[in-house]
Amino acid sequence: AVGSAAMEEEAAAHNGSAAGAGTGAGSSAAARPPATPEGMALAYGSLVLMALLPIFFGALRSVSCAKSKNSSEMPETITSRDAARFPIVASCTLLGLYLFFKIFSQEYINLLLSMYFFVLGILALSHTISPMMNRFFPANFPNKQYQLLFTQGSGESKEEIVNYEFDTKDLVCLALSSIVGVWYLLRKHWIANNLFGLAFSLNGVELLHLNNVSTGCILLGGLFIYDVFWVFGTNVMVTVAKSFEAPIKLVFPQDLLEKGLDADNFAMLGLGDIVIPGIFIALLLRFDISLKKNTHTYFYTSFVAYIFGLGLTIFIMHIFKHAQPALLYLVPACIGFPLLVALAKGEVTEMFSYESSAEILPHTPRLTHFPTVSGSPASLADSMQQKLSCPRRRRQQSPSAM
Known about the structure:
Blueprint: H1 2-12, H2 37-66, E1 76-78, H3 80-103, H4 106-133, E2 145-152, E3 159-167, H5 168-187, H6 190-207, E4 208-210, H7 213-233, H8 236-243, E5 249-253, H9 256-259, E6 266-270, H10 272-291, H11 297-320, H12 327-345, H13 348-353, H14 377-389
Parallel strand pairs: 1-4
Antiparallel strand pairs: 2-3, 5-6
Helix pairs in contact: 1-3, 1-4, 1-6, 2-6, 2-10, 2-11, 3-7, 3-8, 4-5, 4-6, 5-6, 6-10, 7-10, 7-12, 10-11, 10-12, 11-12
């Protein structure tokens, strides 16, 4: 999926080294005049706002994604084994990129990465704007359905490799996204970079699902250690982040007020600092819905915790004038705040026993007992209706059983 591909790349060279990097971007930052207080406030405020948008809307879209039957929109579930293995894989990838930049020409590596993210960015942006664009199409728009099917083998051994369904509206969104892609490829403009970065982040939060809160704690805890080690322990992440020319971070110029759209002294925030906490916040939103109390207490609590953690990151970075591993502040906030609320409400057991893969969302009835009825189709339908109208208490099923 586009979201997971973007996140894995980001996990290799993300966040801390660039998290709100107010000291500037790249090796030429020292030669630039210091940013004005107004410019820095505008840059930091814009980064925080841009970080909140994909988390909020991605979490909302993850709810509908969880009950989608379209194979192209099915979420990818992260298990506890995946979460435990992820920091190790990310560290190996980060170190590999570092060695690549040391051995091979940085120009050719970034050319390959630009082409890779050009394709991914177009797909991600198209998927992001598709629901919004549907409102602008007239009712009489000739919308035709298409299916891209790629199979392997023949007869009974035939296996589907790709089965992607789309329509004419999706093609229009793809064309619009391609314009942004060409703009980014030719100019590497910071606005085009941010459009792709926001699309990657929203897709990651929407399509990557943690299966339970314990898995989320394992993932965030592992990347907490990963982030701190590679930022404070070595110069690997800083080197890769400065060398990596791809939309893996959100940027905003601190000299926008002086130079306008041609500004080039950027503050940055890595996509990993958005996607990693974002998928945990989205999990808590689905947990809120599973409680069926018509409240989103844990979602709003974790959302406020994210704002607090990101604000603390920027404050510490500004005080010490050094790149900060944002997950150092985001992880304790995003886990600690909801946990304190659960302790106060006495719902810790419910929180940690909740399984996202086994969730039953509103308006999604499931038939778990199939009646054995002989006779006409009408009598079979009546029997099924009686079964559904008289639900019985059942025990919680494990994900494997489901």
